[in-house]
């Protein structure tokens, strides 16, 4: 479909209301009576849902702060006092979520504006007359319903991973003032609702894209399946097996595996390879957007006034990558540079057997990788609003949320859980070869059979960091895989659900039914 340029002001114009604790406003009922009359109305409302999702994930760098900044200063160094960085420690880097200035991470209200928008779409869609659809009405309804269900599922999954139990709101509410506050819904019920919605979405959408330019930015059936696989893995590892030392529930792991294998087997995704290696030029375009690597991404392109001038990946850039910017707000930590992409790799069992690191990601992700202060350039597609003066720069990259490499790495993880350690190692070796990464000495010279469960999971987590850094998910990967990748998330804190965010105290106003997450009780 053609991208709709009108961004709907969803909270004021379309929302028919919500519970008091969600802090939303009632709809303008007169306006609503004139809306929801045609397929075009529904598409505008759906455009509003996409715009709201983009805002949910990117406001104050929510996606990258929670998914990447939490890794600590070994990966991201705060070099300046940019907005939202209030001290040199930046509390989120050290897991101090109770500190000031973190309300955007602790308050779920804005996410519910998106949920309520999708609820409205799903409830109004059956009432739209068939003759207002441009083509087949049934197919048109399915396309809109499938996308709305996907967006609602994605938002609820993000809430689930961030807060645990959350209020489950599935319908519009025409009388918000009369309603009483809602309690949190048990996470087991929330995750099952997400899976049910994704089943319904999969039945609405096709694997093929209607328009190739929609690739990645409009969810298809494969995007639904990929998200469903992530949900099954979270339930298997975190919800059903909550302790740090517990192994996953294999029933859910098997369900995730079947979905991933179906997507891989479709042949719709993945970059072309020569002798098992991806082309570095094609690989670099993955992070601009709409590539065969993309399964779902946020459309944030300058041409549609959706580019960003302050998204976190841009805060790493400086001269000569970013004109007239001589000091960046963020730098790369020592673990990212020296552990993930060292200049020299040991390649043999004898001390001194070394070669240069030829991983194509090393130079694609870092400018001046061999220098003393390399610049992180994974996202560096810059457009200047004033090109003659090279001023007012905007980042013109889409923001990846799910991509094919994630599925390949999850496949290895699943093989480990299934006890197929040799298969997991073989897949890891092939993945590294595809990036031209020399085999690290920690794995390369150990025969496949003796590799331990934990050893392989550590290697896979490290490879996820190499591949997926600054894509907003490494923190959640660490929680799911139960590694010690995040220094402050100790097993003791993990077992008290200390990986979850505390609820913003503002949410408790006029809502006696809410309770704080147990790790944070008495701390905020």
TrEMBL record:
Record keywords, A-Z: Cell outer membrane, Membrane, Signal
Matches recorded under Pfam families: SusD-like_3, SusD_RagB
Boundaries of every SusD-like N-terminal domain copy: 84-233
Gene3D superfamilies according to UniProt: 1.25.40.390
Limits of the RagB/SusD domain: 378-481
Main subcellular location of this protein, as a coarse class: membrane
Domain of life: Bacteria
CC per GO annotation: cell outer membrane
Transmembrane segments: none
Coiled coil: none
Localization: Cell outer membrane
Annotated family: Belongs to the SusD family.
Listed name of the protein: SusD-like starch-binding protein associating with outer membrane
Source organism of this protein record: Chitinophaga niastensis
């Amino acid at each position: 479909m053609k991208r709709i340029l009108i961004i709907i002001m969803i909270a004021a114009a379309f929302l028919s209301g919500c519970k008091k604790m969600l802090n939303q406003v009632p709809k303008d009922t007169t306006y609503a009576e004139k809306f929801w009359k045609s397929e075009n109305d529904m598409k505008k409302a759906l455009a509003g849902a996409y715009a709201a999702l983009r805002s949910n994930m990117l406001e104050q760098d929510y996606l990258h702060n929670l998914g990447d900044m939490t890794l600590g200063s070994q990966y991201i160094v705060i070099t300046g006092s940019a907005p939202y960085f209030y001290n040199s420690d930046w509390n989120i880097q050290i897991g101090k979520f109770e500190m000031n200035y973190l309300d955007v991470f602790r308050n779920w209200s804005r996410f519910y504006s998106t949920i309520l928008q999708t609820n409205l779409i799903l409830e109004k869609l059956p009432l739209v007359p068939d003759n207002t659809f441009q083509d087949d009405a049934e197919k048109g309804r399915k396309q809109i319903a499938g996308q709305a269900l996907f967006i609602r599922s994605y938002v609820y999954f993000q809430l689930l991973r961030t807060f645990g139990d959350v209020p489950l709101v599935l319908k519009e509410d025409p009388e918000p003032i009369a309603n009483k506050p809602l309690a949190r819904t048990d996470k087991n019920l929330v995750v099952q609702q997400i899976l049910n919605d994704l089943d319904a979405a999969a039945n609405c959408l096709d694997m093929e894209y209607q328009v190739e330019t929609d690739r990645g930015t409009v969810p298809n059936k494969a995007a639904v399946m990929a998200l469903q696989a992530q949900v099954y893995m979270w339930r298997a590892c975190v919800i059903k097996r909550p302790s740090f030392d517990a192994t996953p529930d294999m029933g859910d792991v098997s369900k995730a595996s079947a979905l991933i294998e179906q997507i891989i087997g479709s042949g719709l995704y993945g970059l072309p390879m020569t002798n098992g290696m991806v082309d570095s030029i094609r690989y670099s375009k993955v992070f601009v957007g709409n590539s065969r690597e993309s399964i779902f991404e946020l459309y944030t392109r300058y041409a549609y006034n959706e580019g960003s001038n302050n998204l976190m990946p841009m805060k790493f850039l400086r001269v000569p990558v970013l004109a007239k910017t001589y000091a960046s707000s963020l730098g790369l930590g020592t673990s990212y540079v020296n552990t993930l992409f060292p200049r020299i790799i040991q390649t043999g069992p004898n001390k001194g057997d070394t070669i240069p690191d030829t991983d194509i990601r090393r130079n694609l992700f870092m400018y001046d990788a061999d220098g003393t202060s390399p610049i992180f350039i994974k996202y560096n597609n810059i457009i200047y609003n004033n090109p003659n003066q090279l001023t007012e720069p905007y980042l013109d990259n889409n923001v990846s949320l799910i991509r094919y490499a994630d599925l390949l790495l999850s496949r290895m993880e699943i093989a480990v859980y299934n006890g197929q350690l040799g298969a997991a190692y073989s897949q890891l070796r092939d993945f590294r070869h595809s990036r031209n990464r020399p085999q690290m000495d920690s794995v390369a010279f150990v025969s496949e059979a003796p590799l331990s469960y934990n050893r392989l999971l550590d290697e896979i987590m490290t490879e996820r960091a190499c591949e997926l850094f600054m894509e907003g998910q490494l923190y959640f990967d660490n929680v799911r895989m139960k590694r010690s990748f995040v220094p402050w998330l100790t097993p003791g804190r993990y077992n008290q659900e200390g990986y979850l965010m505390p609820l913003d105290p503002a949410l408790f106003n006029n809502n006696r039914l809410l309770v704080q997450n147990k790790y944070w009780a008495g701390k905020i």
